[in-house]
Write a sequence for this structure.
């Protein structure tokens, strides 16, 4: 393992949060969380409610670095591959700056599960930065992973849906054993991925064993019959 600090790519969703938790459980010295805030739809990054990562980072007790790639113009990309490469550039620049600030970058944690599109680009970035990549969820069985998250004490809320079978009732719903059983039925009926890897749904971790205080939410829901999301009206750390 390389010398230096570790950083965790962190969206506040279940996959990046569980990767962070696994890193901390293994004693990796994670000194920063890094959140990319896309300006619109993204091939590389989790998009909804990323502003709540500030609360999550406070609860976890690790400083947060925000990356806001407002200079990225998707219109300049001619295909998905070029857009993914372009989206990665602000993150790579931020990690290079962090390496200077922290006296070296030993490694990066990532919550990739099945997306080679994302994993290959993050792996290439780590290689260029001379950093190890810790991706403990990679190619794991989705249902086993979901059960591990629940068994560890993760409280996971669904904050966005975009798939057949996922209606407005799923918005804000806790991902628990009952929800997992319902998702299994939707997988059989419509092909919905149990972890939402195809963009079927997005999540927010509101509590977990690595967090000192839970995130409390007030929100409304927006649903157009096909896609929907929660609109956060208030968020704070509970007791």
């Amino acid at each position: 393992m390389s010398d230096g600090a570790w950083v965790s790519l962190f969206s506040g969703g279940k996959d990046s949060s569980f990767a962070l938790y696994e890193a901390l459980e293994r004693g990796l010295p994670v000194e920063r969380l890094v959140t990319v805030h896309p300006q619109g739809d993204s091939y590389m990054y989790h998009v909804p409610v990323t502003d709540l990562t500030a609360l999550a980072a406070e609860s976890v007790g690790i400083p947060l670095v925000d990356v806001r790639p407002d200079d990225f113009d998707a219109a300049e990309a001619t295909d998905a591959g070029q857009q993914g490469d372009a989206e990665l550039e602000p993150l790579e620049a931020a990690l290079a700056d962090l390496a200077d600030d922290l006296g070296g970058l030993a490694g990066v944690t990532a919550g990739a599960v099945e997306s080679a599109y994302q994993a290959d680009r993050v792996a290439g970035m780590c290689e260029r930065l001379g950093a190890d990549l810790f991706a403990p969820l990679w190619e794991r069985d989705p249902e086993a992973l979901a059960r591990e998250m629940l068994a560890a004490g993760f409280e996971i809320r669904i904050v966005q849906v975009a798939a057949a079978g996922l209606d407005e009732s799923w918005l804000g719903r806790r991902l628990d054993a009952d929800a997992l059983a319902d998702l299994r039925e939707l997988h059989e009926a419509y092909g919905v991925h149990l972890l939402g890897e195809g963009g079927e749904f997005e999540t927010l971790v509101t509590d977990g064993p690595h967090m000192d205080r839970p995130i409390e939410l007030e929100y409304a829901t927006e649903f157009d019959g096909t896609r929907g999301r929660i609109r956060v009206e208030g968020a704070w750390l509970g007791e």
In short: The chain is about 35% helix and 25% strand. Strands lie at 5-9, 30-36, 64-67, 105-109, 132-134, 155-161, 201-207, 215-223, 228-237.
